[in-house]
Design brief:
Layout: H1 7-12, H2 21-29, H3 32-41, H4 48-63, H5 67-82, E1 85-87, E2 93-95, H6 99-119, H7 126-140, H8 157-167, H9 173-180, H10 199-217, H11 220-226, H12 232-249, H13 254-257, H14 286-298, E3 305-306, H15 308-319, H16 326-347, E4 355-356, H17 357-370, H18 379-390, E5 397-399, H19 400-407, H20 414-424, E6 431-433, H21 434-446
């Protein structure tokens, strides 16, 4: 286990580690098992910023928390990876639980730290590498992976990385998409604020910069094997970015040089009851809300249709920020399976296993208007499982922090989360009961106007 003054934490916690983040992802996804898992199970194409946030949160819990938090995070990752397996496009079986795959993914994180220093012109000394690798191995020992799969010493890591590149990695479509595609089509980050209208220009500039820097920084063996050139412009960008960042960051105060682990980053929630003025005219806002719910919440793959994979991804993303037992996590997945079966039976008109946005909106409106029990047969099952999963202490209510953990992330602004919480907390006691929670979802799906509890639970439509 590492300590606050460890070389590992100082290196991994420095803000300039972001310079090698995309390089790290490319090396990981170039492993065919990782690429297949991402292609079949991940929603990173539609939600790249959420994927980055999940990675950062997981890294914080692995390397910057206490031993109990580390072990809980390892258990969480074990449960998540247990579901990821299948057959890739070439007919090869893959599993995210394969020890050699997990070792590769973890070693690339250590290798990224050494690459950062090498690229900055101040490489670690052999003695520092021994310390860094020792701290790293002490932490990842909690994964229980066979010792024989790991490079024995820090001096053995470069050889292990080069052998893996030459013998196991592949330059597949997921790698090319990471390098040249995903950032060119990435949705606008939720917290871009006033710069939102400039996102198309910023996105193009970001995509070019990240791709150029990543290509320049990839290991020579990787570029050589897959025929990726490193032009003068890319080399110059790499030199300027890494050395410039080193000169600037090493002179900053620690509070600016190092990332502060995320905590309760939203403004405090006030719990005064809200009084709403009655409206003379009420417009039916359900279609707009259901449309927004489809686009922003339930269409996890971002392809304009929903299927069982989207519901599985939703269940995964409910469980991800919560520290659940295997039994409770299975309950969440089973509840979302129930919801999918109901949707499939009532919305999939052509029987192709996919539901369009128009089908979802129309069938939901017809269902709630026709059958008072419509939501209880699917949505409410999933919602109650969400509530019980988020109710960390089993007290039968959600506090503001538990609500943020469930609905937070990069898409919804903290102020909107606070507004949503206050709307549900109708008695102003600072907590939400299970029935209030279910009532809020019911109001979101059925309330004709915006004055019902839950209408702005996920922000404005």
């Amino acid at each position: 286990m590492t300590y606050p003054d460890s070389l590992l934490r100082r290196t991994l916690g420095e803000r300039r580690i972001a310079l090698v983040a995309w390089r790290l992802l490319v090396l990981q996804v170039a492993h065919p098992a990782v690429a297949a898992g991402m292609s079949d199970w991940s929603t990173y194409r539609a939600h790249p910023w959420r994927r980055v946030q999940h990675t950062m949160d997981s890294g914080r819990r692995l390397f910057f928390a206490d031993l109990d938090s580390l072990r809980r995070e390892v258990a969480r990752l074990d449960r998540a990876h247990r579901r990821i397996h299948g057959t890739d496009a070439s007919g090869r079986a893959y599993s995210a639980e394969a020890p050699e795959v997990r070792v590769w993914v973890l070693v690339t994180l250590y290798e990224a730290m050494t690459a950062l220093r090498q690229l900055s012109g101040r490489p670690f000394t052999p003695a520092e590498l021994d310390v860094l690798y020792g701290e790293f191995r002490a932490t990842v020992a909690e994964f229980g992976l066979p010792d024989g799969l790991w490079p024995p010493t820090a001096a053995d890591v470069p050889g292990y990385v080069e052998r893996t590149i030459r013998e196991r990695l592949e330059d597949g479509p997921e790698v090319r998409h990471l390098l040249y595609g995903i950032l060119r089509e990435a949705p606008r980050p939720g917290r871009l604020g006033r710069l939102g209208p400039a996102w198309p220009v910023l996105r193009a500039l970001t995509a070019w910069t990240v791709a150029t820097l990543t290509v320049a920084d990839l290991p020579p063996a990787f570029r050589e094997r897959f025929g990726i050139g490193r032009g003068r412009r890319a080399a110059a960008l790499s030199w300027a970015a890494h050395r410039g960042a080193r000169h600037v960051m090493t002179r900053l105060p620690d509070r600016w040089r190092y990332r502060v682990p995320p905590g309760a980053d939203g403004p405090a929630v006030r719990h005064a009851p809200r009084h709403r003025r009655a409206r003379a005219r009420v417009r039916d806002t359900r279609p707009a809300r259901l449309d927004a719910f489809f686009r922003q919440v339930i269409d996890q793959t971002g392809d304009g249709r929903i299927g069982v994979a989207d519901l599985r991804a939703m269940a995964h993303n409910v469980c991800w920020p919560l520290e659940l037992s295997a039994e409770r996590e299975s309950e969440v997945h089973a509840a979302f399976d129930t919801w999918w079966r109901q949707m499939s039976a009532t919305m999939d008109a052509d029987g192709d296993g996919r539901i369009t946005r128009a089908e979802f909106v129309a069938a939901t409106l017809a269902g709630v208007d026709r059958d008072p029990e419509y939501l209880t047969k699917g949505l409410h099952v999933a919602v109650r499982a969400m509530f019980r999963a988020a109710d960390a202490d089993g007290g039968g209510h959600l506090c503001a922090d538990e609500y943020r953990a469930l609905f937070g992330g990069t898409r919804v602004h903290p102020a909107e989360l606070n507004d949503g919480f206050r709307e549900l907390d109708v008695d102003g006691d600072g907590r939400i009961t299970e029935e209030e929670f279910v009532l809020a979802f019911t109001g979101y799906f059925t309330g004709v106007g915006d004055s019902v509890p839950g209408a702005r639970m996920f922000g404005r439509a």
